[in-house]
Automatic annotation (TrEMBL):
E.C. numbers: 1.11.1.24
Subunit annotation: Monomer.
Gene3D superfamilies, alphabetized: Glutaredoxin
Reactions this protein catalyses: a hydroperoxide + [thioredoxin]-dithiol = an alcohol + [thioredoxin]-disulfide + H2O
Bias (Polar residues) ranges: 79-94
Assigned GO CC terms: cytoplasm
PROSITE patterns: THIOREDOXIN_2
One GO-annotated biological process of the protein: cellular response to oxidative stress
Protein name: thioredoxin-dependent peroxiredoxin
Source species: Bradyrhizobium lablabi
Pfam families on file: AhpC-TSA
Family that this chain belongs to: Belongs to the peroxiredoxin family. BCP/PrxQ subfamily.
Enzyme class: oxidoreductase
Single annotated GO MF: thioredoxin peroxidase activity
Higher taxonomy: Bacteria, Pseudomonadati, Pseudomonadota, Alphaproteobacteria, Hyphomicrobiales
Length: 245
């Protein structure tokens, strides 16, 4: 082949190298990091204003219960003092060995009785809540049944409640009671002997007569006090105590 007719083969074109991404300068990366940090910090760390408000609310939370507690205790104390200051709520402080409080009150039949009427004798005073109720009826009947035995041991017996004379006489006639029944409608004797105070029944709290029995010696001193009496066998127990003196 001649030089003229020989064609030159095309030379391969050089491949273009891919463009490299420009390197990030340390300044731009630090700027982005700085931009990200405040956003994250806002999520995780409260601002100064919020922190101050939270601190104040915490202080208020700490102080507030103390105020409420002191206020409640003050009210409770006031209530207790008021209750204790009322004459009906005060206890007599009567104890065994103390002198029996004097009394003079009307009894069934229209007469009056006093502590001095029984000087030189032992005396039983049984305080009952209300005439002609089941427990009080049984108690009065039991003391009537043992009246002769009490008399044989030089002991008199008196029943005391806050009922009117009319109610006491009806009670006596209905059950043929032989022991004198005293009417203390003003509750003065009941309070003096600690037989008046707070009671509860069916979830209700009120003031009333507490079933109580007191044995007084011939010298006018308290020998024994039975409080919160249970009626069954009580009269027999009191008789035994009177005989033992």
């Amino acid at each position: 082949m001649s030089k003229k007719t020989r064609k030159k083969s095309p030379k391969p074109s050089p491949k273009k190298a891919p463009k490299k991404a420009p390197k990030k300068s340390p300044k731009s990366s630090s700027r982005k990091a700085a931009a990200v940090q405040p956003a994250n910090a806002a999520k995780t760390r409260p601002s100064k204003t919020r922190a101050t408000a939270a601190g104040k609310s915490r202080k208020n939370d700490i102080k507030q219960p103390g105020k409420a507690a002191s206020g409640a205790s003050h009210k409770a104390a006031t209530k207790q003092l008021t209750k204790a200051s009322s004459p009906a709520a005060r206890t007599s402080g009567l104890t065994e060995g103390a002198a029996a409080p004097a009394f003079r009150l009307p009894r069934d039949g229209g007469d009056t009785v006093s502590l001095s009427d029984y000087a030189g004798k032992k005396l039983v005073l049984f305080f009952y809540p209300r005439a002609d109720t089941p427990g009080c009826t049984k108690e009065a009947i039991d003391f009537t049944r043992l009246a002769a035995d009490f008399a044989a041991s030089n002991t008199a017996v008196l029943g005391v409640s806050g009922d009117s004379l009319k109610a006491q006489e009806s009670f006596r006639n209905k059950h043929e009671l032989t022991i004198p029944l005293i009417s203390d409608e003003k509750h003065e004797m009941l309070q003096a002997y600690g037989a008046w105070g707070e009671k509860s029944m069916y979830g209700r709290t009120f003031e009333g007569i507490l079933r109580t029995t007191v044995l007084i010696g011939a010298d006018g001193q308290i020998i024994r006090i039975w409080r919160h009496v249970r009626v069954d066998g009580h009269a027999d127990e009191v008789l035994a105590a009177a005989k033992a003196v």
